[in-house]
Design a protein that fits this description.
The protein is α/β, with parallel strands linked by helices and 487 residues long. It is built from 16 helices and 13 strands. It folds into three domains: 15-145, Toll/interleukin-1 receptor homology (TIR) domain (Rossmann fold, 3-Layer(aba) Sandwich), CATH 3.40.50.10140; 151-332, 2-Layer Sandwich (Alpha-Beta Plaits), CATH 3.30.70.1230; 408-482, no CATH class. The protein is elongated and about 95 Å long.
């Protein structure tokens, strides 16, 4: 996998890198070399989402300590590179021209570079070239004292890697400025859409996005957050596709990969967090294997999210020198998540609490409705105790148990847990018209005599009987309100 760096974003001195995008592979390797020397490096992937491309370039170049221009046949004839060298010349920012290949410079570019330092990389062996580079940039190389304050930490995270693919709509090549504006706008929309999921976003290149869930703050549902973020990113791309085709003559697609595991989180002064580890590489490799509009996850992630998402088992995927059991994410599941104790050890030391819950169940089954609030510190065993209660209730007879889950992502959805339960029972989907949803609810409720006093706690098993019209009318009125806006 090609190495990449995060553009510098801080107050320390840095170098501005100018290059042609067709040379990105070669230039990225050179930027990694500069980084290893201790230099802070800025390049155009550091343009903030929603920023004006030209203004951001000008500001970053004006604040730079040095401009490094990678000269090739493509960059020598790039209008953008010409503008950047001219701006540097005007502002007095020194330029180091690194010639990647023999090039006859246009007269204007020759004028801009005439009195500037130059290194002809293609003429030198690797060791000699590196020595010349160090000599030319010696005064800018960051002192080791800054590096010593870097901190590293091993963390369990879930990494989402998104790879964007853009192709011209017509036969004409895409203007680079339009391309960057489209990518910047796309990133801005994605950033806004997934902000509430609290993932750490890092840009690896113009067409790649890494989002790490679990840093700087960990959550017990980080894997689910990553899955939701992937679906939201796909939604942003789907909604932007027609607009970008008309405005920028670009067709944009995205493929994504998700992996969970341990990584090294490094906090570098002036740069923030950087993620290193196999999980990050696996997520990128999974994204490469996925097709346009597809989200691939590992079996590890699939196990963490349980039945919260509908997935298709793709099978083993060969990724480099290993293979990963892979699933494709289809959508968030409509089936209510059930608490399942299978695979857990027998509960120990909770006899008193379990007995108290069973007493409440017996009261509910006898007709006296009950509600229990179970609270405690994270990890103390609330879910495990609830699973044990459900297991014992099921052992008592033919009982249907439904579970709903509250979530900070659905604070504006009325009665979300109950709506989720009904959606799962009735097989409701977001694309269904409201009339069909209401008809299914009516048909389902018609099988229960809600006019008589049924045993609370579960839906009774009884032969279908007419439901009183006022009761049905109220339920349908409530349901109509809940489904007034299709999800």
């Amino acid at each position: 996998m090609q190495k990449s760096i995060t553009p510098y974003n801080g107050t320390e001195p840095y170098v501005f890198v100018s290059y042609a995008h067709v040379d990105e592979t070669v230039v990225m390797a050179e930027m990694c070399r500069l980084k290893e020397m201790g230099l802070n490096v800025w390049y155009d992937a550091g343009i903030a989402p929603g920023s004006t491309w030209r203004e951001e370039i000008a500001q970053s170049l004006a604040d730079a300590s040095r401009m490094i221009f990678f000269v090739s046949k493509q960059s020598a004839n790039s209008i953008h590179c010409m503008q950047e060298t001219s701006f540097s010349h005007t502002r007095g920012v020194k330029i180091l021209a690194i010639h990647l290949e023999p090039v006859e410079l246009p007269l204007g570019l020759e004028l801009n570079l005439g009195d500037q330092q130059a290194i002809f990389k293609y003429q030198h062996q690797e060791e000699q070239y590196t020595s010349q580079l160090r000599s030319a940039l010696g005064g800018l190389i960051t002192q080791q004292a800054a590096v010593s304050s870097t901190t590293s930490e091993l963390k369990q995270v879930t990494v989402l890697h998104a790879q964007f693919r853009t192709v011209p709509v017509g036969d004409e090549p895409v203007d680079p400025e339009s391309y960057l504006e489209a990518i910047s706008q796309c990133r801005a929309r994605i950033t806004e859409r997934i902000a509430g999921l609290e993932g750490h976003i890092s840009l690896t290149s113009n067409e790649e996005l890494n989002i790490c869930f679990g840093v700087p703050n960990a959550h017990e549902d980080d894997a689910k957050r990553a899955m939701r973020a992937a679906l939201l990113i796909q939604e942003v791309i789907d909604r932007s596709r027609i607009e970008f085709a008309k405005q920028y003559d670009l067709e944009i697609n995205v493929r994504q990969g998700i992996q969970s595991g341990r990584v090294v989180v490094r906090n570098v002064p002036g740069e923030g967090l950087s993620i290193f580890g196999q999980s990050s590489n696996d997520a990128a490799d999974l994204a490469k294997e996925a097709g346009n509009g597809q989200i691939y996850i590992s079996a590890t992630v699939h196990q963490l999210v349980g039945n919260a998402f509908d997935c298709y088992h793709v099978g083993e995927q060969a990724l480099g020198n290993k293979s990963i059991d892979t699933y494709q994410v289809l959508k968030e599941s409509l089936v209510p998540q059930q608490l399942d104790s299978s695979g857990f050890l027998r509960i120990v030391g909770r006899e008193q609490e379990l007995g108290s819950l069973l007493d409440r169940w017996k009261l509910a089954a006898s007709g006296s409705g009950q509600a229990v609030l179970l609270s405690g510190e994270p990890g103390i065993g609330k879910s495990r105790l609830t699973m044990s209660l459900i297991d014992q209730i099921r052992d008592l007879g033919d009982v249907q148990v439904f579970s709903g889950v509250c979530s900070p992502y659905f604070t504006h959805t009325s009665l979300h847990p109950f709506v989720g339960i009904l959606e799962g029972i009735l097989g409701l989907r977001s694309e269904m018209p409201n009339e069909e949803k209401l008809a299914r609810l009516d048909e389902y409720l018609a099988g229960f005599d809600l006019a008589r006093k049924a045993r609370p706690g579960y839906l009774p098993s009884c032969s279908p009987s007419p439901m009183t019209y006022p009761c049905r009318k109220q339920l349908l009125k409530w349901r109509s309100k809940v489904f007034s806006n299709p999800s």
